[in-house]
Write a structure and sequence with these properties.
With about 120 residues, this protein is α+β, with helices and mostly antiparallel strands. It has helices at about 5-10, 50-55, 70-80; strands at about 15-20, 25-30, 65-70, 85-90, 100-105, 110-115. Strand 4 (about 85-90) and strand 5 (about 100-105) form a beta hairpin. The longest helix has 10 residues, at about 70-80.
Length: about 120
């Protein structure tokens, strides 16, 4: 998906600056989200599912999470762009019952969609 089109699908207008640099063969999308939160997860025990994941695949980025007004609308938009629905929307205990859904983009990025709601 071209960077210029990404804002319509992923951020709905959050694009601050788009640049295409033909001599370098890349496009850049600079976005300034209002809030950016990093969540770092580590295993609390040797038999944690996270321990097994780290042993098999190593550390690094696992997924990106986007808070959206309407998860079902966003799922439809992402599926039109080639994303696969990995897990349909369901209430999440960790987020006070707000809906979460999981998709895998054509670029193999795992994306979590979180229904907007009260602050965590």
């Amino acid at each position: 998906m071209p960077c210029q089109d990404s804002c319509a699908v992923w951020g709905r207008g959050g694009m601050d600056r788009y640049s295409k640099i033909p001599t370098r063969r890349w496009e850049s999308l600079f976005s300034a989200p209002i809030t950016l939160t990093h969540k770092i997860v580590e295993p609390a025990a040797d038999d944690s599912p996270i321990s097994k994941f780290l042993q098999n695949r190593g550390g690094g980025l696992h997924h990106c999470c986007y808070e959206v007004e309407n998860p079902k609308e966003q799922i439809s938009a992402m599926r039109r762009e080639g994303a696969l629905l990995a897990k349909p929307p369901k209430p999440a205990v960790a987020f006070s019952g707000r809906l979460i859904a999981w998709l895998l983009t054509s670029e193999k990025l795992l994306v979590e969609l979180l229904e907007k709601g009260a602050e965590i």
